[in-house]
Amino acid sequence: MEKFKAFLKRKDIEISLKRYGIDALGAMAQGLFCSLLIGTIINTIGTQFGIEFLTTPVATVAGVEYTVGGIATAMSGPAMAVAIGYALKCPPLVLFSMIAVGFASNALGGAGGPLAVLFVAIIAAEIGKMVSKETKVDILVTPLVTIGVGIFFSWLIAPPLGRAAMWVGNLIMWATELQPFLMGILVSVVVGMALTLPISSAAICAALQLTGLAGGAAVAGCCAQMIGFAAISFKENRWGGLISQGIGTSMLQMGNIVKNPRIWIAPTLASAITGPIATCIFKLKMNGAAVSSGMGTCGLVGQIGVYTGWVNDVAAGTKEAITAFDWTGLILISFVLPAILALIFNYGLRKMGWVKDGDMKLS
C-alpha cells in the first residue's frame, strides 16, 4: 500500500474532492466558456449585426455545414476534456489525447454530455498519467492507453450519466414550472451560493442542462451574489472591487466569508427574493446555452445568454418580440434589485454588529 501511495504521489495523482470537485469542475466550465459559450456569442453577433462571414458556413464535415461559431460550439467536448486534463496536471501526451476522449464522451453523453465528460475525462487522465513515461515507447503507449480507456468508459458510462443528468435537470425545470415561487427561491439561492463557493456553478448548470425558468432563477441567484457583494463592499474596495466582483466573480470574497460567514447573509437573502421575482413576475427564462445560467454578471455572460434565448425564440416563432418589459426585468433582476436588497440587508447586519468595517476588504 505504501508503494502504491508513493507511486500516486510521484504521478501527481491526488484523489480528493478538491482536485476533482473544484479544480476539474472549474476547469470544465472554462472549457465550455471557450467553446460552446463563445460559439453562441459569435453566432448571436453575426446574426444580429448581419455579419456575413459569421453567418456563412466556412466548413462542411460529413455533410454538416459549420459557421465560425458552429465550429467553436462543436468543439465543446474536446475543450472540456483538455481543460480538465490541464487542471489534473497531465503530461503533454496525456493532455493531447484528451481531445479524442472529450469528443467521444460528449457525443455519447447526449444532452447531458458535460457530466459524462467530467467523469470520463478524470478516469482517462489519471490512468494516462499512471502509464506516462513508464515505457521506452511512451509516444505509443500513453496515447493508446489514454484514448483507449477514454473511449471504453465513454461507451460504458457516458450514456447513463447523460441520461441521469438530463433527468435531474428536467426534474428541476419541471418543478420550477410547477412551483415557480418555491423553486425560484431554492434554485436562486443554491446556484448563487455555488457561484461564490470555489466550485463552478456554470459547470453544474451545464451538466444538468439547466435552462428555461429554472435557468432564469439561477441567473438571478448568481447576479445577487456578484452584484450584492460588489455593492456592500464598495466602501472597502471602491471601484476596483466593484468591477472585479460585479463582472468578475464573488468568489473573491471566499476568504472573508471563512473569517466571518455573516457577510454572506445579505447577498444570499437578496437571491432568495430576486429568484421568485424572476420566475413569478418577469418569467425570466434562460433559453440560451445552459452554461450561461451559472455565470451571472461575469462578463455579462448571463445577460447575453438570456438575450440569445430571446433571439432564438423569436426566430423559432415561440416569442413574438423582445419587449420593454423583458429588458426591464433583466436589468432589475441582474443589477438593480441585487444591489438595493443587499445594501438594505447589510445595513441591518451592521446595526446588529454582525458585519463590521473591513470584513469584506479584498487583499
Low-confidence stretches: none
Alpha plus pi helix count: 16
Count the domains: 2
> Major sheet: order of its strands?
1-2
Computed over alpha carbons, the radius of gyration is: 22 Å
Overall helicity: over 70%
Oligomer kind: single chain
Quick one: biggest sheet? 2 strands, antiparallel
Overall 3D form: globular
Number of strand segments: 2
Structural class: mainly alpha
Work out the strand percent. under 5%
Calculate the terminal CA-CA distance, rounded to whole Å. Answer: 42 Å
What is the residue-mean pLDDT, rounded to a whole number? 93
Order of helices and strands: HHHEEHHHHHHHHHHHHH
Write the topology of this structure:
Blueprint: H1 2-10, H2 17-48, H3 52-55, E1 59-61, E2 64-66, H4 68-74, H5 76-87, H6 92-109, H7 113-131, H8 138-178, H9 180-196, H10 201-208, H11 212-232, H12 234-246, H13 254-259, H14 265-281, H15 301-316, H16 324-351
3D structure, described in words:
With 363 residues, this protein is an all-alpha fold. 74% of the residues lie in helices and 2% in strands. It folds into 2 domains: 2-164, no CATH class; 179-351, no CATH class. It is built from 16 helices and 2 strands. It has a two-stranded antiparallel ribbon with strand order 1-2. Helix 8 (138-178) packs across helix 11 (212-232), helix 11 packs across helix 16 and helix 14 (265-281) runs antiparallel to helix 16 (324-351). It is globular, with a radius of gyration of 22 Å. The mean pLDDT is 93.
